[in-house]
Amino acid sequence: MAVPGSLNRYLLLMAQEHLEFRLPEIKSLLSLFGGQFINSQETYGKSPFWILNIPSEDIARNLMKRTVCAKSIFELWGHGKSPEELYTSLKNYPVEKMVPFLHSESTYKIKIHTFNKTLTQEEKVKRIDALEFLPFEGKVNLKKPQHVFSVLEDYGLDPNRIPETPHNIYFGRWIADGQRELIESYSVKKRHFIGNTSMDAGLSFIMANHAKVKENDVVFDPFVGTGGLLIASAHFGAYVCGTDIDYNTLHGLGKASRKNQKWRGPDENIRANLRQYGLEKFYLDVLVSDASKPSWRKGTYFDAIITDPPYGIRESTRRSGSQKEIPKGIEKCPESHVPVSLSYHLSDMFFDLLNFAAETLVLGGRLVYWLPVYTPEYTEEMVPWHPCLKLISNCEQKLSSHTARRLITMEKVKEFEDRDQYSHLLSDHFLPYQGHNSFREKYFSGVTKRIAKEEKSSQE
């Protein structure tokens, strides 16, 4: 690891969506590639401009080969709150670091990027001309330059109050762009096999990045559905597998989720989804299995577990059970019948998931999952806990005015022992989340109240 004094400063231009997910993604990817997240500014907040210290350009490039939260990265040559400050900063930048990119045999171009303001062509040219003091000796090439330099101006976040002058101005050498195009190329709209709850492509890649998925990892999804999370992991070179209690979904049977299609076709399945993107070689298998009763032998099999458990809204929370567990008054089935489907409390589901991850993840492996919460009652103490797992990040995505889901990332830091299986019952985190077993009822009660409120206001 390079010492902090030898680190280079880079400017990240971030996308303005999924704001809470951006910092954990960048931290996870830097950690994956041997870097370390070192703060270069007080807070990153909602700003699209982040200054980072990174040990090498190789790590910066590797970061951009994975991130879907960042648009571009630049080697930062200068920064100021006014043009004069920027020019002073550039004059203080070591000339020996500039020379390899400015010599007489090189070609270059300078681009102007503004956030929250549009400049005229004349204004852009004026800003480029003001940089004549830099020792450019090469030729300008607007079509295929060897080196691209950018002036980036930040006019704040409020589109209704755009200042005359920028809050910050940056100048840097463009290094690489992020993987934003994956969101479109892997869009669920274009996917061969989808379900009611197929995960948005952008969030799937964010989850894989939070999990630090890498080549030759084995990644598992215990609530696999139509396999959207497997696709993102396979794209990064991991071998993927999963389970689900729904036989029809795994086998592509029954009613289709796609509009204007009544029944699923014979080739609609998870393997076909991976084949669509040229990722079939990474597909291990999927099994019809109950997450509450894992069918795996004891051992550590997985480098990452990434999943989106059902919340009981669009997909029911179910587990298999025996005849003894069926409530009285329901007619018994023949003894030879496959175990019946029973309700599966959310709190039980998540503690089963944490126990399973603690048992089957390799040391340092990560669990990434969605936790639904009723916002008025949510506190951080409600996030399920396990002695073998360390909480890495906790990000919110709003679902409605009163509900949200939290993307929880945990890392295995201790080998599992038998006594760890029920340790959550002694934890202060166990009882608070039990209140979310009624998440479905709270979700729909809020929907009903909102509809009634809208109807009442429309009649007034």
N→C terminal distance:
66 Å
Give the uncertain stretches in residue-range form: 1-5, 325-339
**SS-derived structural category:** alpha/beta
Our count of helices gives 13
Strand arrangement in the largest pleated sheet: 2-1-3-7-6-4-5
What is the total tally of β strands? 16
Instruction: Give the biggest sheet.
Output: 7 strands, mixed
What percentage of residues falls in helices of 4 or more residues?
Answer: 25-40%
What shape does the CA trace take? elongated
Average pLDDT reading: 85
Question: What percentage of the residues does DSSP assign to strands (E)?
Answer: 25-35%
Question: Over all CA atoms, what is the radius of gyration?
Answer: 26 Å
User: What is the N-to-C succession of helices and strands?
Assistant: EHEHEHHEHEEEHHEHEHHEEEEHEEEHH
Subunit structure: Part of the heterodimeric TRMT11-TRM112 methyltransferase complex; this complex forms an active tRNA methyltransferase, where TRMT112 acts as an activator of the catalytic subunit TRMT11.
Catalytic activity: guanosine(10) in tRNA + S-adenosyl-L-methionine = N(2)-methylguanosine(10) in tRNA + S-adenosyl-L-homocysteine + H(+)
Domain tRNA (guanine(10)-N(2))-methyltransferase TRMT11 N-terminal: 9-180
Domain Ribosomal RNA large subunit methyltransferase K/L-like methyltransferase: 190-320
